[in-house]
Amino acid sequence: MNPKRALPLMLGWLLLALLVLAAPAQAQQASGSSEPPAYSTLADLLENQETRQELIDQLRGMAGDVAESAPGEAASAAPSLPRQLAELTSRVASDIGSQLEAIASAIGGMFASDLESTFDMGVFISAAVNLGLVILATFVLFIVVRRLARPLFTGISQWSLNGRGLTPILRLIICVALAAVVDVLIVSLAYLGGNLIATFAIGQTGELSTQASLFLNAFLVIELLKAGVRMLFASRYDGLRLLPISSEEAAYWNRWIARLIGLVGYGLMVVVPLVTAYLSPAVGKGLGTLIMVGAFLYAVVVVLKNRKRLRDAFNAKAHQTTMAASRVSLQLFARTWHLFALAYFTMVLVLTLTRPEDALPFVLFATLKTIGAVVMGLLLSSFLTQTIGRRIRLSDDLRRKLPLLEPRLNSYVPNALRVIRTVIVVLIIMVVLNAWGAFDLAAWYASEVGRNLVGKLVSVATILAIALMVWLALASLIEHKLNPDTGGGMPSARAQTLLSLFRNALAIALVTMTAMIVLAEIGINIGPLIAGAGVLGLAIGFGAQKLVQDIITGIFIQVENAMNTGDVVTVGGITGTAEKLNIRSVGIRDLSGTYHLVPFSSVDTVSNYMRGFGNHVGEYGIAYRENIDAAIEQLQLAFEDLKASDEHGRKLLAPLDVAGVIALADSSVNIRVIIKTTPGDQWAVGRAYNRLVKLRFDEAGIEIPFPHTTLYFGQDKAGSAPPANLRVMQQDFTIDGSPAGQPKFDGGATDDRFIPDRKGANSASKRINPRHEQVDPENRKPSGGDVDEP
């Protein structure tokens, strides 16, 4: 970032921090800076008669003035918000200016005065040497103990990365907690060793100097803070790092934060008290201010330096997330994270300048609460993702019984996780605001509004969870009944249709009831909604009579079991298979593959070919010269062949029913037979039986007559007919008895009509001249030279 652009930005953040934090600061100052009243002065005033009377007169005069100016002051009792902010900003700025002026004057006076009169160099050197020895011994002991504990940290890290039996996030939490305990023990041992060394080995034996005590206390606090930072940014052990970042990134941020903590901690907790004690309180106060300003500038430089790098990292993380809200939030945070960081450090600086007594503890605890809330939220979200966010795998037996339960659960769990993550984010925001004094979480929850809101949210969540469990239970029970591998075996078509309709009706009823209960729980009066729904339903009933007729007819069709899914029916003049059946219409797929949607209001008759059994009614014609009993016998033999078939034998329900001769037609004697089959198989059985009848009739020589054509050539007035010239195309003998293979031809025109013999064999192919009157039925040579010799 350009320094010229950074300067106005920093000034803006400084002003914003002053406005935001001035009210809590003044409130805490007012509550914490109450001085004991001057009881002795008041007592002296009351004991003296003159001063007592004077005080009474002054109080009466002040009461009169207040009474006279009450109307005007009442109007101006509550100043406007801009005025309050202006006064507050002016007060804070004047406090900071006066503080800096006092520091500068104190430092100038210190150097202008004689230091030798107030500063003992020998005592200072002795104290500095003793303190240096304590610092050196404490840090050496701390480093040695940490090196000895490295194998332990390595083992814990390896188990976190490669352990079995627990989810990765749970192993990580356990291992980080164990490592934190070990780290705290190491710091405690170093602190205890430093105390022993400072008490018995350095300085006067048996006494702990003030300087050593200041350093050891600061060492304990600072190293514990660094241990907390190492929980987040463990650079050497990948299995002990809570944040999912690389080792290089962890090392960078761990080093930067450790430097900042050491600079501020040791500076304010060790250097400033020592300077205050040995030099001057004003110098110590000024040094503390300089330390905070230096830490602020150092933090600002680091933030601006890493602005683009962290923005790219957050954007990459946003592209990996699946939730739209999380993706948008991460992208927005990627653009503005440096602003939040600058606001944080600016706020710390302002608090340090305006509240030097309690600024550091307040900022420390607020920061720890913020980091703890964010880390706990991230860990909880990761734990939920790894435990229930993965694809749910049911057992093979349960998957066989309830095939749709697993995909249904896998569709519900991501939505539930989104809701839980949203709740976690809201809780984190509330805890963070509470940590910084912007929101009193305990007071809000203790209020009636907070209790009611939390109670309603819990009630709504409970209602939704119960409704979801009821739906899962009932839907799974219906699937169990519909599954042919479980329940009572293969369900009937009626059961399939009714259970499917019941499942849809159950879903509609459950959604409606749940919505009504939730609305009533959150305080919405559902009485008008129910009344409005009734009026709307009545209006729809009058306006959509056709729809009502569809539904009522559909209900009765289902109750009477007129048809089910998979039945072959004739509905509304359309014959086909019922593929889809609901409360309003039926979907029919005909033989050509066309899908028809027939509303029940147009259905007056339902013809179902799939009820109980089916019949193949066959009518077979034989020639008049054939024996009827022999033909019936062949029909029986064809049925026996059908019954012996592996494919169609199991479909026959009764012996062949021969109805007998049903008609003496023009060219055939018709015999009817009836074959009783399983429902829906009558067409396949009929096709197979027709084939067998044809084979049996051919084998027995029984003629199945077919239409013949008789040609009439006409006569003239004398009663005679012109000759009919015949042309023999191919036959085994000639008309005039000549050897075969020597056909006779005429020279006239012929047509191409083919006349078979009586048996239908192609023994003679003839071409008939339409000019001839008749054809000799005995195939003899006509007289009168009708056939020309070649």
UniProtKB/TrEMBL annotation:
Family membership: Belongs to the MscS (TC 1.A.23) family.
**What sequence ranges are listed for the domain Mechanosensitive ion channel transmembrane helices 2/3?**
505-545
| Compartments, as annotated in UniProt | Cell membrane
Q: Which residues form the Mechanosensitive ion channel MscS C-terminal domain?
A: 620-704
- The Mechanosensitive ion channel MscS domain covers which part of the protein? 547-610
Q: How does it sit in the membrane?
A: Multi-pass membrane protein
Instruction: Give the species.
Output: Halomonas marinisediminis
- Name of the protein in question: Mechanosensitive ion channel
Provide this UniProt record's keywords sorted from A to Z: Cell membrane, Membrane, Signal, Transmembrane, Transmembrane helix
Q: What InterPro entries does this protein's entry cite?
A: LSM_dom_sf, MS_channel_1st, MS_channel_C, MscS_beta-dom_sf, MscS_channel_2nd, MscS_channel_C_sf, MscS_channel_TM-2, YbiO-like_TM1
Top-rank lineage group of the source organism = Bacteria
Q: Which residues form the Moderate conductance mechanosensitive channel YbiO-like transmembrane helix domain?
A: 366-444
Q: What ranges does the record list as Basic and acidic residues composition bias?
A: 750-760, 770-783
